[in-house]
Amino acid sequence: MIRAYKFLLRPTKGQAAALTDMLRDHCSLYNGALQERRDAYRHASKTSIKYGDQSAQLKEIRACDSERQGRWSFSSQQATLRRLDKAFQAFFRRVRAGQTPGYPRFKGVGHFDTVTFPKDGDGCRWDSTPHDRQTRVRLQGVGHIRVHQHRPVQGRVKTISVKREGTRWYVVLSCDRVPAEPLPPTGAIVGIDMGVAHFLTTSEGAHVANPRFLQAMAAELAEAQRHLATFPKRTRQRTKRHRAAARKVARLYARIRRQRADFHHKAARTLVADHDVIAHEQLNTAGMTKSPAPKADPGRPGNFLANGAAAKAGLNRSILEAGWAQFLGILANKAESAGRLVIPVDARNTSRTCPECGHTAKENRLTQAEFRCTACGYTANADHVGATNVLNRAGPALCDVA
Fold first, then answer.
1. How confident is residue 329, by pLDDT bands cut at 50, 70 and 90?
2. For the chain, which terminal residue's Cβ has fewer other Cβ atoms within 10 angstroms, N or C?
3. 265 and 332 in contact (C-beta within 8 Å)?
C-alpha cells in the first residue's frame, strides 16, 4: 500500500528563515517559468514551451543565480517545474472538455507553501530509526531539522515534501510497500447516512453528533476578521500590526482544520474497528455546494428573480463545514489498512424511499428528521431510513464479493 505521513517540524530560528527563503525562491522559479510560457505563446507565434525545455535551462539559471537558485536542490526545482506543467495539462484538459478553463495563475509568496523532493537521498534525507520519537530530516541548504515523529514510519520513503501552514512547518513523507494491519473480523456490516443535523447516522440507529467546529469558533473568528479589516488597503502587508492580525486569523482557521481532521480520524476509526463492511453514499460535494444559477426577470431587464441563493449559501456552508469528502477519504484509507470493505452506493432518494415497501416520493420526508411513507404508513427517523437504504443498496455488491 501507499501511505503518507505528516510530522511537525521543529526548526531553529535560522532554519525557519532558510525554509522561508527556500519557498520564496521556488515561488520565484514557478512564476518565472509561468511568465516564460505566457510570453512565448503571446509573442512568438503561439509557441508552446514544455517541461523539458524549461528543465534544460535550470543548470544555467543556477549558475547565474548561485546565491539563491543555486542554493537549493536541483531535483526539488524540477518538481516545481513539473507542478507548473501539471497545472497547464489540467488547463488544456478542461478546455477540451468544455469546462471553465482556469488558466494557471502566478503564486504570491504567502500562498506558495510546499516544496517537494522527488526522491529520498537526492537533496533531502530522512534520518530515522524504528520507534524514534525525535528524529531529523536533512534538507539541502537548510540542514538537519528536528522532527516530532509521533508514529513509526513503515514502508519505503519515496518522496519528501516540506509544507508551511501558518507559522508551523511540516514534513510529509510518501511511502510505498506499507504493510497492511488487518483487524480481527467482527461479522458486522453497516450503512451510514451523512447529514448536517447529525454528522452521520448508522443503519443500526446510532447518531454521531455534528461538532460544528467553525460555528463554535465563529465569534472569536469574526472578531479577529473585523480587526484585520480595520487596516486600510494601502497599509496592508506593510505593518507589523497587520501581519500579526493576519496570522491570528490564519491560526484560528488552522485550529478548526486540525479539530475537524481529528474528529474525522476518530469517527472513521470507530466504524472500521466495529464493522467488516461499511456502505456509504457516493456524494458529489462539489456539485452539492454549487450556487444556484441566476434567474433573469423577463419583465424588468437587468433585474433578477429570487433564486434561493441566500438559503442555499447557508446549506453550502454547513456541508463544507462537515467535511464529508475528507471524512470518506480517511474512512477508505483506514479500511484498506485494516482489511475492511467500503462500498459507495448511489445517493439518490436514499432518504425518500421507504425501506419497507420501496415507495419513493418527496412527500415521504415530512421534515428534516421525520419520515412517513405515504403508501404504507411506515414511520421512522429520516436519517435512519437513509442509512438503511444505503445498506440495502450495497447488497448486490456484497453478493459479488462473496
1. very high
2. C
3. no
Using the 3D structure, point to which of 148, 176, 204 is the last residue of a domain. Answer: 176
Q: Which of 150, 151, 138, 171 is nearest to 9 (CA)?
A: 171
Asked whether residue 286 falls in the same domain as residue 316, the answer is yes
Instruction: Tell me whether residue 250 is in a domain.
Output: no
Residues 6+ apart with CB under 8 A from 145: 9, 10, 11, 15, 136, 137, 138, 139, 169, 171
Nearest residue to 253 via CA among 228, 285, 290: 228
Please tell me the predicted confidence (pLDDT) of residue 130. 53
Query: Which of 176, 197, 232 lies at the terminal end of a domain, its last residue?
Result: 176
> Helices (H) and strands (E) in the chain — how many of each?
12, 16
Residues 165, 80 share a domain: yes
Q: Is residue 182 a part of any domain in this protein?
A: no
d(CA 298, CA 99): 28
Return the amino acid letter for 363. E
d(CA 137, CA 11): 10
Domain, as residue range, for 321: 189-213+256-401
What is this structure's pTM? 0.86
What is the torsion angle, in degrees rounded to the nearest 10, for the CA atoms of residue 237, residue 243, residue 247 and residue 248?
Answer: -120
